Known about the structure:
InterPro entries: Adenylyl_cyclase_CyaB, CYTH-like_dom_sf, CYTH_domain. It comes from Micromonospora sonneratiae. This is Class IV adenylate cyclase. Residues 5-179 form the CYTH domain. The structure is a single chain. The chain has 185 residues and is an alpha+beta fold. It has one domain: Hypothetical Protein Pfu-838710-001 (Beta Barrel), CATH 2.40.320.10. The protein is built from 4 helices and 9 strands; from the N terminus they run E-H-E-E-E-E-H-E-E-E-H-E-H. Strands 1-5-4-3-2-6-7-8 form an 8-stranded antiparallel β-barrel. Strand 6 (104-119) and strand 7 form a beta hairpin. The radius of gyration is 16 Å and the shape is globular.
Amino acid sequence: MGDGIREIEVKYRVTEPDTIVAALRQHGVELSAPVRQDDQAYAPAGWTYGQSKAGHSFARLRTQDGRHLFCVKRPLDNELACAEHETEVVERDQMHAAILAMGFQPTVRIIKTRRTGRLDGMSLCLDEVRHLGTFFEIEMLVGDGRLAVDVQRDLDRFAGSLGIGLQRCTETYDSLIRAALTVGV
Length: 185
């Protein structure tokens, strides 16, 4: 992603995935076949869960279909509105070591099965996330001066137009997994 491009998203907990698939189909969207994503999340040294993510850079190392992707996200307005830079890397283990050498600390592993589609500049993702359940994400790449909250309001309006009950969630998967795994500890 180039300079000035932000990934802005909204996320929803899903209790009935088939209703989303059917609603998207009515909008002409056929979701892809499921793919498995294995993500290791990293936080900057000194940052801990419970602190604001805004203004801090976070890394992710993803393996999908034998490819390894390194990504750095920097939340701007909120956790789901980020400047993002991503590139493919050859060796996951070497990239992991490099991320540690850059001062990041591993946080949680995020394993999910994702189905995707596109509509009117939106990326639509239906995710089955280990330890969490099913989620629906709507993402958009924005390069102009639009406020993230305005874009998120528009994405939320689209989600509402699907006519199904969705429970909005404002946290990232790593935060949700961390919370789920530490309950009762």
